[in-house]
Amino acid sequence: MSAAPASVVLLSGGTGGAKLALALAEEIGPERLTVIANTGDDIEIYGAHVSPDPDLVSFWLAGLIDERGWGLRGDTFTVMDELRARGEDVWFNLGDRDLAWCLRRSSLLAEGATPTGALAALNASIGQRVRVLPMSDQDVHTWVSTPHGGWCAFQEFMIRARAAGPVDGLEFRGAERARPSREVLDAIPAAGTIVIGPSNPLASIAPILAVPGISEALASAAAPVVAVSPIVGGEVLKGPTAAFMAFGGRDCSAAGVLEHYGSLLDGIVADEEIGAALPSLRTATLMNTSEQRRQLARELLAFAGTLGAGG
After folding, report:
1. What are the residue boundaries of the structural domains of the chain, listed by start?
2. What gap in Å lies between CA 273 and CA 70, rounded to an integer?
3. What region does 146 belong to: left with phi over 0, alpha with psi -120 to 50, or beta?
């Protein structure tokens, strides 16, 4: 097996990317991993700035994720219950400790911190040592259109509309004005391996790539860029990936994922045969247990070590 790379950069959305981030941190050490997380799902609600994907990644890395797969383990929901009792339309559920986390982010932002700096401070407060970077310090908002519901913000699509497809429109509003932070632009060229995590390619990774400068940095990086397919056993394990892939005109398969990312990739990891000219690793990608996650991380890193320079 090849030696682990000097550092790894992981592009991540929510659960799949977060699980892989934890496994990579365990394999190479937290100081050698940087996660660039999607912020297109961010929302201002209850007087707080909620950043679901960066927070989910952070909670997984800190060992604090609840067994339901989001929020903090063992959290209570007294504030939400009280808001409902006072007539508030509580459609976005936040635990009490999770709300405190997000309120503290809002305070830091009001004091002049960047989203990158605010998240770093929050992670430091729980002893979480992996650098988790928002994809940009400027606002980018993912909007989704469906034939029956028209346009709505991503969280409303996911929660109010219950992610009911089909999807007939996808926009990353504000992306054209956003820029990656200096921390993001420094991390990519310094990486020994760049991984696109097993997150929704269109709804979770595409917002990151839509920020001007990030795709260009990946294309010019010396490190190989490797994607891990989010399609497991021919199915989507969580979320509306199939609806988004259909909107993008891609088959909901590893081959469809490869077609979507195109020339950005130097390799792909999947649990199915792809039959493409691009180097690929066929291996188990299910990450329900710690050992499954660690095994995937080990094989991913070894595979990346066999690839030549990226770009």
Report:
1. 8-47+131-305
2. 32
3. beta
For 8-47+131-305, CATH gives 3.40.50.10680
Distance (Å, whole) CA 111 – CA 127: 22
Residue 4 confidence class, pLDDT cut points 50, 70, 90:
low
Of 189, 244, 190, 179, residue with least CA distance to 212: 179
Q: Tell me how crowded residue 57 is: count the other CB atoms within 10 A of its CB.
A: 33
- Angle of helix 52-61 versus helix 96-110 axis, rounded to 10: 120
Helical segments of 154-200, H only: 154-155, 182-190
State pLDDT tens for residues 213-260: 999 999 999 999 999 999 998 888 778 999 999 999 999 999 999 999
The band of 275, judged by pLDDT with boundaries at 50, 70 and 90, is confident
Asked if 57 contacts 18 with a C-beta cutoff of 8 angstroms, the reply is yes
Tokens of 2: 């090849």
Of 63, 77, 71, whose CA–CA distance to 129 is shortest?
63
Query: 24: closest CA among 306, 171, 226?
Result: 226
pTM: predicted TM-score of the whole model, two decimal places = 0.95
Helices (H), 30-166: 52-61, 78-85, 96-110, 115-125, 154-155
Candidate from 2-11, 77-86, 101-110, 157-166 with smallest mean pLDDT:
2-11
Residue 131: its H or E element? strand 131-134
Residue 310 has pLDDT above 60, yes or no: no
Report how far apart, in Å, the C-alpha atoms of 76 and of each of 61, 94, 119, 226 are: 21, 9, 22, 39
